[in-house]
Amino acid sequence: MKTKLSLTGTMIMVWLLVQLSLPAKCETAWKFSKSTDNVDLYYSIQKCDGNDVVLFKFVNHEKKNVKLSWTEVMKTQFGSGQKSFRGPQTLEIAPGVTMGKDCSDRSIPQCVLRSTDGLAPYIPVISQFDFENVTVVK
Questions:
Q1: How far apart are CA 126 and CA 83, in angstroms?
Q2: Which domains, ranges and CATH numbers included, belong to the chain?
Q3: Does residue 16 come out as left (phi exceeding 0), alpha (psi in the -120 to 50 range) or beta?
Q4: SS3 label, residue 9
Q5: What angle do CA 117, 122, 128 make, to 5 degrees?
Q6: Secondary structure element (H or E) that encloses residue 60, with its range
Q7: C-alpha pair distances (Å), 12 with each of 6, 16, 21, 22, 89
Q8: Which of 75, 72, 78, 74 is nearest to 121 (CA)?
Q9: What secondary structure letter does DSSP report for 5?
Q10: Residue 52: beta bridge partners?
């Protein structure tokens, strides 16, 4: 009987220690960039495997799908005003929220900008980001 109680107590202590040592899930810190024609644009600069990643979140307040177009501009170790290697982006978004969930999300490629995806001979360190030339077609 004592053995069962001390085994159970030990198992509970181990479980508690494991739970306390797990990293807390952090929520994405979205930064508002701009609002254009009833669509809000947000971004979040994060690290993924030691490299920078920019996640995008778009909130479509319309009641129907819209086509969103934009150019990605960032500040890197080589200066500000650096255009993304991807060129202009276009995405049809449904009403509500469309976003990149994390750096491994490849379901909506336009919602995740990875610094390692470019063909440049360097990996940019992204310190600031903004959307330019934003258009919404209803």
A1: 11
A2: 31-137 (2.60.40)
A3: alpha
A4: helix
A5: 75
A6: strand 51-60
A7: 10, 6, 14, 16, 52
A8: 78
A9: H
A10: 47
**Residue 70 and residue 87: Cα distance in Å, rounded?**
9
Measured in whole angstroms, the distance separating CA 55 from the mean position of its chain's CA atoms is: 2
Q: Whats the size of the chain, residue-wise?
A: 138
User: Which pLDDT band holds residue 28 (cuts at 50, 70, 90)?
Assistant: confident
Element (H, E) at 43: strand 39-48
Question: Exposed, middle or buried: residue 45 (CB in 10 Å: 0-12, 13-18, 19+)?
Answer: middle
pLDDT in tens, 39-87: 999 999 999 999 999 999 999 999 999 999 999 999 999 899 999 989 9
**Tokens read off for 98:** 């469309």
